[in-house]
From TrEMBL:
The ALOG domain, residue ranges: 52-179
Family under the similarity heading: Belongs to the plant homeotic and developmental regulators ALOG protein family.
UniProt GO MF annotations: DNA binding
Organism: Citrus clementina
Recorded superkingdom: Eukaryota
GO biological process, alphabetically ordered: mRNA transcription; response to light stimulus
Localization per Swiss-Prot or TrEMBL: Nucleus
Name under which the protein is recorded: ALOG domain-containing protein
Length: 204
């Protein structure tokens, strides 16, 4: 997101939330498009993708720290828990751009609604999932212990799963990963590798 876009969006937010809003916009600006580095077809592409991922992770980490600083009362990272991470994710919803239909909406479960509706805008599950993945990695890279990682808390995992299920039903989109089927030839080779046991001899 360039500086012109950021300044334009910041001007639409009330001055009382300037600090927190700036942090949220920096994170969400590329959360929906930046995930873990894809497998590139060349070494140059690998370096570029890795660099973008690391830069985004660093921005996410810095802006989350700013969010904690602006928290009322201020919150230190050492005292941050899964509950605070959930609070942060719910806070980000106000900047969401994904329409999530309610069960009473006539377009509930439709991927491409034919008309507008008053249903709320939320952060897309994919954006939140990618964001938590980057923050979880950044926490440990900055000296945090894996067992004390608030981004890996069970409550956070359950929340993301709930968001995924709700948005999947509301938007008529399946987020389930398809299981890779083994080629028939590979299955046959594996069956051939299984040693056959000789038949048990009957007692004389």
């Amino acid at each position: 997101m360039d500086s012109h876009s950021v300044s334009h969006m910041n001007s639409t937010i009330s001055e009382n939330n300037d600090n927190n809003t700036a942090a949220a916009l920096m994170i969400i600006g590329s959360s929906s498009t930046t995930t873990s580095p894809p497998t590139p077809s060349s070494a140059g592409a690998a370096t570029s993708s890795s660099s973008r991922y690391e830069n985004q992770k660093r921005r996410d980490w810095n802006t989350f720290g700013q969010y904690l600083k602006n928290h009322r009362p201020p919150l230190s990272l050492s005292r941050c828990s899964g509950a605070h991470v959930l609070e942060f994710l719910r806070y980000l919803d106000q900047f969401g751009k994904t329409k999530v239909h309610t069960p009473i909406c006539p377009f509930y479960g439709h991927q491409n609604p034919p008309a507008p509706c008053p249903c709320p805008l939320r952060q897309a599950w994919g954006s939140l999932d990618a964001l938590i993945g980057r923050l979880r990695a950044a926490f440990e890279e900055n000296g945090g212990k894996p067992e004390a990682n608030p981004f890996g808390a069970r409550a956070v995992r359950l929340y993301l799963r709930e968001v995924r299920d709700v948005q999947s039903k509301a938007r008529g989109i399946s987020y389930e990963k398809k299981k890779r089927k083994r080629p028939p030839q590979q299955q046959q080779q594996q069956q051939k590798q299984i040693p056959l046991l000789p038949p048990a001899s009957s007692a004389s």
